[in-house]
Amino acid sequence: MDLVLTEEQEMLARSAREFVGGRSSLRRVRELRDSGDADGFSRQLWREMAALGWLGITIPEAYGGAGLGWMEQMVVLEAMGRGLMPEPFTSTVLLAANALLLGGSDAQKQAHLAPIAAGERIAAVAYQEAGSRYDAHKVATAATRSGGGWTISGEKIQVLDGHVADVIVASARTAGGRDDAAGITLFIVAADTPGVTIERQSRIDARNAALVRFDGVAVGADAVLGAVDAGGALLERVLDRARIGLAAEMLGSMQAAFEMTNEYLKTRVQFGVPIGSFQALKHRAAKMYIELELARSAVMGAHRALDEGRDDATVAKLASLVKARCSDAFVLVGNECVQMHGGIGVTDEHDIGFFFKRARVAEMTFGDAAFHRDRTARLEGY
Amino acid sequence: MADLERFRADTRQWLEQHAPPEMRTTPKSQDEICWGGRKADYPAPVMRWLAVMAERGWTAPTWPREYGGGGLSKAEAKVLAEEMAKLNLRPPLTGFGLSMIGPLLLQEGSEELRREHLPAIVQGKIRWCQGYSEPGSGSDLASLQTKAVRDGDVYVLNGQKIWTSYADKADWMFILVRTDFQAPKHNGITFLLMDMTSPGVSVKPIKLISGYSPFCETFLSDVRVPVANVVGQVNGGWTMAKALLGHERTMIADAFKERDDRRKLIDLARKHLGEAQGRIADPIARDRITQLEMDQACLDLTLARSRDGMKAGHKPGPETSIFKYYGTELNMRRRELMVSICGPQGLGWEGPGFDPEELKMTRDWLRSRGNSIEGGTSEIQLNIIAKRVLGLPD
Ligand SMILES: Cc1cc2nc3c(=O)[nH]c(=O)nc-3n(C[C@H](O)[C@H](O)[C@H](O)COP(=O)(O)OP(=O)(O)OC[C@H]3O[C@@H](n4cnc5c(N)ncnc54)[C@H](O)[C@@H]3O)c2cc1C
Which partner from A75, A111, A117, B82 sits 20 to 30 angstroms from A22, CA to CA? Predict the structure, then answer.
């Protein structure tokens, strides 16, 4: 498969950009934040996205999706990134749908994927814990067998879209010690199950996240996603796909921030000339552009690998490659764009700050660059 | 598709039959890399390999047959490259003829000039050098002062070129001269082909910080060059110069995409820094190595994306500046990291206490400092991107 978009993909990219440009301005994002909206996103828009087929792009037709490829999803995610859309795509599609696709039984897939693709069900994956940082295998939340089922207790942090989720896929330890990669199991838990408490968290980018507590939550044996004690490896595969998808979204965001700033360089006048004529800024802008191009290549390369059905080891390395690249690039672009705007850049009133804050959150979601370099070295055997 | 597979099988068989076994190895030193030319003096297998490949035109696989090239389609040339890589075969010929002046002549040269020069390039008979830079004109190349005055059907050249790579080994030079001193600086330049054996040409090697001496000063005193040797239009040389620079930057970037250094960095780190629980013991070096290799992987993907884009009919854009900038910066980082991993063993110039591989590595590091200068400095590449891509004002 070549590293170019097909005509159909180009068309999809254009229409996605138009849709986001028309329906999701940065003003909308700002209003959602400032109004203290209970959902933190627009259910109306979510339904429209479902109607466009965006939520089921990579979900097979048999489960209510479109059965298209990752490249198609990539161009849509990039458009969403341009508009910093807070709709629960990362949680519901990148994480939960992939968890079901990779680990779910046919019954579980039947039960959840079609409603997800239709925009009728929001799903979250709860795996991060206090002190686990980026290591998804550090799990203290415990599940013990009781009767025919399981009882789960523990706390998850910064669960993306946890407060609006209808179902939560949670990791829990079923064997071994807190830091063991083995002995983790994934469970599908309805958000309204007794013993589940969800408390919304507020982070710098105003995107949605929540604390999710499990206090003796009883679930049946059919709640297990994948095999008992084998959830760690499954989770890693899910996260790799989410990393790749998130990178596409990040690419769109940095591209938008960069374009906004490049425009400013041409229009803001100081010393009687546009500030973009100063070489100190030109060279830094050119370096950002190079970073963006390299990031785009990595994003495309990783999506292609998924469409080509590459093995897990290859996908894992590419996921780390692309997440590391986009993390560093987005933070650089965020920092530089604020600096190049001068005083207005550090005001809440200007939109560039939204990108700057989002960069930091996205950087640390699913592992920052340092984490992924270490992981790459481990995967390469040194 | 079936044709391509047949071509693959035939090619493989032919290569196995004709490639000298010595050519199925990585060159042991610079002296084994074949640049051709009248002064060519290479080991017998190198010369034999050149001869058999040149006969098929496979030193320049995609050039038209009428000029001695292989006449292969892009797809066939890719197959040839792949089959050569599988057999670990060296390129039979390298040089500025194949990578710079040849492509330019194919684009812009007169029929006479193509017939005169392209076959000799394919055969490796003539080696070329590039006469652009002058003592007063480096980055500001268009300010060049070497003078060409018309005298009947020849130009008479006077002036000095500098940093002329391999001028002492080359047979011909493509050279930029000023033919109009009144016109604005970009509009008075002409692109000429000059025989280095012409009376009045003299060269003096310059030594680099690496100790190698790959480039020269070239002095021109009343050198007579036929007017027929003009490429493009008289006073239109700047357009030619820029077109050729595109080829040059692609070549320089291509030179840094091979990955055979990859394991080397890791092995080197294991040797000099040790291991702990299967990991390179120094976490900082380990991180720097990983960062470098990940940056390299992203550059490789970008090169592939650009190639795929061209294949799909996209117009070549400013990529060459990205590749020149990033490829050279990356290579320099790699060389620097190698030396710092070696520690005191990376400090050897020659003689006892250092093994040949260490000495070569150190010399390569010193040589790499020129990467971000030759072919247009890194700063100039950033200027180009800022202007052409980002549209930032002067
Ligand atoms: C190994 C090697 C091989 C070479 N081979 C050849 C050859 O075969 N033929 C040939 O003709 N030439 C050759 N060159 C010459 C090369 O093209 C020039 O060295 C190069 O263009 C820079 O010119 P300069 O050395 O005069 O430096 P200068 O132009 O004087 O530059 C000095 C410094 O100023 C910076 N600078 C200059 N202008 C600007 C600007 N506008 N904005 C920001 N910074 C600027 C440069 O980036 C550099 O850092 C070779 C050079 C090297 C190192």
Answer: A117
Domains contained in chain A, number: 3
Helix axes A231-267, A312-341, angle to 10 degrees: 30
Tokens of B387: 């202007």
Query: Which position has the token pair 């560093």?
Result: A328
Domain enclosing residue B155, as ranges: 128-235
Query: Are B17 and B79 found together in one domain?
Result: yes
Neighbours of A93 (CB within 10 A): 28
Q: Nearest 10 degrees: CA dihedral of B224, B228, B229, B232?
A: 140
Q: What is the ipTM of this complex?
A: 0.95
Let me know whether A237 and A252 are in one domain: yes
B385 with A290: Cβ contact below 8 A: yes
CATH number at residue A364: 1.20.140.10
Quick check: is B371 in a domain? yes
- Chain A: residue whose CA lies nearest to B282: A382
Verify whether the Cβ–Cβ distance B308 to A2 is below 8 Å.
Answer: yes
Q: Which of B139, B301, B330, B377 to mutate to test the interface with A (most CBs of A within 10 A)?
A: B301
Residue ending a domain, among A105, A121, A137, is: A121
In a domain, B332, yes or no: yes
B131 CA: nearest ligand 1 atom: 11
Q: What is the dihedral of CA A65, A66, A68, A71, to 10 degrees?
A: -80
* Same domain for B135 and B86: no
* Residue of B100, B130, B173, B373 to test ligand 1 pocket, by largest number of atoms within 8 Å of CB: B373
User: B381 and B287 in one domain?
Assistant: yes
- Domain with A172, as residue range(s), is 125-229
User: pTM for the complete prediction?
Assistant: 0.93
Domain count along chain B: 3
> Rounded CA gap, A231 and A173, in Å?
9
Is there a single domain that holds both residue A31 and residue A158? Answer: no
Structural domain contains residue A1 = no
A4 interfacial to chain B (CB closer than 8 Å): yes
Please report the sign of the dihedral spanned by the C-alpha atoms of residue B107, residue B110, residue B115, residue B121.
negative
